[in-house]
Amino acid sequence: MEENNKNSSRLFYITLAVIITVVAVLIITASVSKKSDIPVTPDNTTETPTTGPSDTPTDSNTDTLPTFSLPVNGVINYDYSDSVPVFSQTMGDYRTHLGVDVSAELGSKVMAVADGTVTNIWNDPFMGTCVSIQHSGNAVSIYKNLAPEVAEGLVVGCTVKGGDTIGAVGETAMNEIAEEPHLHYELKINDTHVDPKDHFNFPTADTNYEDEKAE
């Protein structure tokens, strides 16, 4: 009888040990499984967090104004004035003038002031034949009072180089017809008219130069 009790007791402890061992194995297996789900990064590697769009600056050339060259060989005979009205010989009244009138012989070639893309060619009932060119630095040059025919091949969307001929000095601006032949030139930066003289060295009236006719 005593021997049977001992055997029963031994069996109980063996069974308990087996159960404890199985539970321990299950716990260890679960722990290892959780660790394997964690991505491992080598010690010598630093992960860069994603913060949205890149902060790397874009090409600075697109934000820089170009070096402008003169649009025509001539001198200013009617100045820029965006706030103080000036007298208009043609209209016989005082009004603002958002460009400069550069006097030149009729038919003198008009040139792009810098590399750019032609954005518009139109006929204005008051300012005649006009061309606008988009440049870097969000600058737009505008040429008015051109001859009716612009340069051959000049179309909206085409690219031009600084110094390329885009047209010729004409007499198509009815608002300025009383003046001597000239190019009405405007410059906009960030959609705002600016004084072209702040970006160009226009010749003075006593400057000697040989005028060139547009081909």
One letter per element, helices H and strands E, the order comes to HEEEEEEEEEEEE
Low-confidence stretches: 32-61, 207-212
Looking at CATH, which topology of the largest domain would you report? Glucose Permease (Domain IIA)
Strand content bin = 25-35%
Total helical elements: 1
Give me the Rg, rounded: 40 Å
- Coarse morphology: elongated
The total number of structural domains is 2
Overall pLDDT metric:
78
The helical percent reads 10-25%
E-strand count: 12
- CATH architecture classification of the largest domain: Distorted Sandwich
- CATH hierarchy, class of the largest domain: Mainly Beta
Structural class: alpha+beta
Summarize the structure.
The protein folds into two domains: 1-46; 61-198, Glucose Permease (Domain IIA) (Distorted Sandwich), CATH 2.70.70.10. The protein is α+β, with helices and mostly antiparallel strands and 215 residues long.
